[in-house]
Design a protein that fits this description.
single chain, Glutaredoxin, Glutathione S-transferase Yfyf (Class Pi), Chain A, domain 2, four-stranded mixed β-sheet, 9 helices, 4 strands
């Protein structure tokens, strides 16, 4: 089955969680918006078909168009060995993924707490207040939860990597970029999370991807943005 990933060409964002799963599974895919006239194709695809997505990322898989990061990952995980075969394991993996999505949304709201259509410069006081709570309370709470789930296992569900592990890796990478001081404090208390981060980064296909031009660098257009004044 040929896969087409539709996401913005200049940022990692939510599309990066999908890219990591595609790369780890060794799936051939087209990152459509990064090709010729790619954004035009993306915008046109948003309006096509009986099940149009609300926004990128979305995945074209044959006749299917699948939107929402967590739904895309559930689809890929079940078909390409990145999720358990049993129903309980699949649900648990998706539960972990949705919790990661909660953290991602909160991270985004640290620099856009007052309005999505406002620039960061227009909401700095609100952003500082939101970021202070995020770094002091929310990062420790979320990462503490994932550390408890991971415990002494290699991966969140045991010895086999799932899409939730890949997403947790991306979450840790993003938090470390946006809030390096705050994240380092929490990771110092939970070395098993840092070990998971290294373990995923060293997987052969992931390592090759991270070292390639396909991996878009973090920047101040995406979800995870580094504003030093917010890293308290």
């Amino acid at each position: 089955m040929a896969y087409e990933l539709h996401y913005w060409p200049s940022l990692q964002g939510r599309g990066e969680f999908v890219r990591l799963a595609l790369e780890e599974a060794g799936i051939d895919y087209a990152d459509v918006a990064r090709g010729p006239h790619g954004v035009d194709k993306l915008m046109a695809a948003l309006k096509e078909g009986p099940t149009p997505p609300f926004a990128p990322p979305f995945l074209r898989a044959g006749d299917l168009t699948i939107g929402q990061t967590s739904t895309i990952l559930m689809f890929l995980g079940e078909r390409h060995g990145l999720a358990p075969q049993d129903a309980a394991g699949r649900l648990w993996t998706q539960q972990l993924q949705l919790t990661i999505a909660d953290v991602v949304a909160e991270a985004h709201e640290t620099h856009h707490p007052a309005g999505m259509n406002l620039y960061y410069e227009d909401q700095k006081p609100e952003a500082l207040r939101r970021a202070q709570e995020f770094t002091s309370a929310r990062i420790p709470k979320f990462l503490g939860y994932f550390a408890r789930v991971l415990d002494e296992k290699e991966y969140l569900l045991g010895q086999d990597v799932t899409y939730a592990d890949l997403s947790l890796f991306q979450l840790l990478e993003g938090l470390n970029y946006a809030f390096p001081k705050a994240t380092a404090r929490v990771l110092a208390e939970h070395p098993q999370l840092e070990a998971l981060r290294r373990r995923v980064a060293e997987r052969p296909r992931i390592a090759a991807y991270l070292g390639s031009e396909r991996r878009i660098p973090f920047n101040e257009e995406g979800i995870f943005r580094h504003y030093p004044e917010l890293d308290t």
